[in-house]
Amino acid sequence: MDVIYLDNAATTPILPDVVDAMHQTLNTCYGNPSSVHAAGRSAKVKVESARKYIAKQLGVLPQEIIFTSGGTEGDNTILQCAVDHLGVKHIISSPIEHHAVLHPLEHLASQGKISLHLVKILPNGLPDMNDLEKLLSETPDKKLVSLMHINNEVGTVLDIESVGSLCHNYNALFHSDTVQSIGHFPMNLGALPIDFAVASAHKFHGPKGVGFLYARKQTALGALLLGGAQERGMRAGTESVHNIVGMEVALRSSYKTMEADTEKLKILKTHCMQSLQEALPGTVFNGACSDFDCSTHTIVNARLPINEKKAQLLLFHLDLQGICCSKGSACQSGSELGSHVLNTLLTKEENKSPSLRFSFSAHNSKEEIDKLVDVLVAYVNS
Questions:
Q1: pTM over the 0.85 mark
Q2: pLDDT attached to residue 51
Q3: What CATH number should be reported for the domain holding residue 290?
Q4: Of 210, 231, 252, at which residue does a domain stop?
Q5: Does 147 lie in the same domain as 25?
Q6: Coil, strand or helix: which one is 36?
Q7: What is the set of active-site residues?
Q8: Burial 306-318 (b: 16+ CB within 10 A, else e)
Q9: Residue ranges of the chain with pLDDT lower than 50?
Q10: What does the pLDDT read at residue 333?
Q11: Of the residues 235, 252, 269, the one at which a domain ends
């Protein structure tokens, strides 16, 4: 059975060119980048070349890019070090952030290190800007705002420029989880009013276990992991050279095809939404999914007109048919509480209908969407 992979917001298939580059690096570039001999210097060159390329694409300085194991480490580093090293006392976030942000914030609040404030969320998944300004005005001590750029479940796109400008008007630092956007959208972080961002290579067809954080130079963010002096003292531990090389190759590929991929994915997403509503009348799209002005072209989160009994086995049935997708996010799939994002955006009655997230890459096709819709219709009518 051919697999139809529609869960690219969870992870993406690694590109063959990325695998080749990583394999070559593992075979020929085994030195420790911190070593001063030739093998170490060779590895160091690869690490720094990747850093320079990433920095150039994002419009920032190479020293503002710190390699990490991925988005979770990046978010944790920024949030905890902002408190421990920058004196942040208040953090404003939202109830629909990724748990890589929410859980560290809850931990910091439980320890009494911060006061945590959650901004009101509108039905489309965007923060209420009036409420955000109110919260900013009521917190006189040093503060930070943490709001994700693209929501990983419903695909809502935050206006980073407007939010960042508002934060800086109130002398607040601004952190955004950009895991779902870097590699998919052109971004000039250096020109945006943003202090911290994170990325994860496996979200743009790179390897798992590697990513980077961006910390604006003026913030003087400290380190979370202590030990060696790697990453300019910002992240101790021997760099994963082959993963960093793989990430660079994946990002190069994404920028090379980004414009064409975006146009293809907009067509694919539109086809998916139209086909679902035509075949299953009553289908509703959660958040701002159907509005391309404030949602990503990579995600459709659909609430389907299926009764509760059939909803229980829906994801299992799709899996048996070779279709990979998520009920909520992959990070939530083992939770009986369901999606915290949908619990925030939907009423209890609306949440009785099953919601599925379909997330696309340029490797998907209209034929795969048609197969998905046929399988769903057959299941509903069975």
A1: yes
A2: 98
A3: 3.90.1150.10
A4: 252
A5: yes
A6: coil
A7: 331
A8: beeeebeebbeeb
A9: 329-335
A10: 46
A11: 252
Same domain, 238 and 352: no
Q: Look at residues 373, 346, 356, 374 and name the one whose alpha carbon lies nearest to residue 311.
A: 356
**Closest Cα to residue 244, out of 16, 26, 78?**
26
Handedness of CA 97, 182, 65, 195 (dihedral sign): negative
CATH number, domain of 70, equals 3.40.640.10
Per-residue model confidence (pLDDT) at position 330: 45
CA distance 378 to 141: 58
**Residues 153 and 128 occupy one common structural domain:** yes
Percentage with pLDDT > 90 across the chain: 87
Q: What is the DSSP letter of 228?
A: S
List, as one string, the DSSP characters of 122-133: -TTS-B-HHHHH
Domain match, 264 and 244 both: no
Amino acid at 12: T
Residues 178 and 191 in one domain: yes
Reading the block at residue 235, the tokens are: 């992240």
Whether residue 123 is found in the same domain as residue 230: yes
Same domain, residue pair 216 and 177: yes
Q: Which two tokens stand for residue 128?
A: 């209420």
Q: Are residues 130 and 219 in the same domain?
A: yes
Cα dihedral sign for 30, 33, 38, 42?
positive
Listed residue (225, 250, 223) closest to 238, CA to CA:
225
Provide the token pair at 74.
Answer: 């990046």
Q: Is residue 77 left, alpha or beta, with left meaning phi > 0 and alpha meaning psi from -120 to 50?
A: alpha
Domain residue limits at 150: 16-252
Structure tokens at 175: 């952190």
- Report the DSSP pairing between strands 284-285 and 299-303: antiparallel
Residue labelled with tokens 């920032």: 60
Alpha-carbon dihedral 337, 208, 75, 166, rounded to 10 degrees? -100
Q: Domain count of the chain?
A: 2
Beta strands 143-146 and 90-93: pairing type? parallel
